[in-house]
Write a structure and sequence with these properties.
Blueprint: H1 3-6, E1 11-14, H2 23-39, E2 43-51, E3 54-62, H3 68-81, E4 87-90, E5 95-99, E6 108-116, H4 118-121, E7 127-129, E8 134-138
Length: 142
């Protein structure tokens, strides 16, 4: 399991890919965002995100609780730069929500971010795979 998920630190999952872009554009955008985050010293990990049924390379970024508001604003800006509809934010209690860069007031609560077997995850239109474990947002507790 990825250490950020084990240690219960808040994180975001962001993608620079877009289904309307070419493969080359998506590859370039992903590398641009990856390089930028690495250069800024963020703790990052590549994950596979599935958003509304579309698979996209995404980046999990561990956040510093102390600077949470500042870091969240940074990722909302990156989402806007890469023309993303939303970013996934998971707090230290594993409460997940989508944050929309063009409509920040209307974040969407998604329930708990939980590990599930692959068979369950792949039936969902939204899930995350970190190379080892599959995760979904469970609305039952929301």
């Amino acid at each position: 399991m990825h250490k950020s998920i084990q240690t219960k630190k808040p994180f975001v999952i962001i993608s620079a890919e877009k289904y309307i872009n070419t493969t080359e554009e998506n590859k370039k955008n992903h590398l641009d965002l990856w390089s930028q985050l690495k250069g800024e010293g963020f703790s990052i990990k590549e994950v596979e995100g599935v958003y509304e049924g579309t698979i996209e390379k995404s980046i999990l970024v561990v956040l510093n609780k102390r600077w949470l508001a500042v870091e969240l604003a940074t990722f909302i800006n990156y989402a806007a730069i890469f023309n993303q509809e939303s970013i996934l934010f998971v707090d230290e209690e594993r409460n997940a929500s989508l944050i929309f860069p063009y409509n920040r007031e209307n974040s969407e609560k998604l329930g708990k971010f939980i590990a599930v077997p692959k068979g369950i995850a792949i039936q969902m239109s939204n899930h995350t795979f970190d190379g080892k474990d599959h995760y979904i947002c469970d609305l039952r507790g929301a």
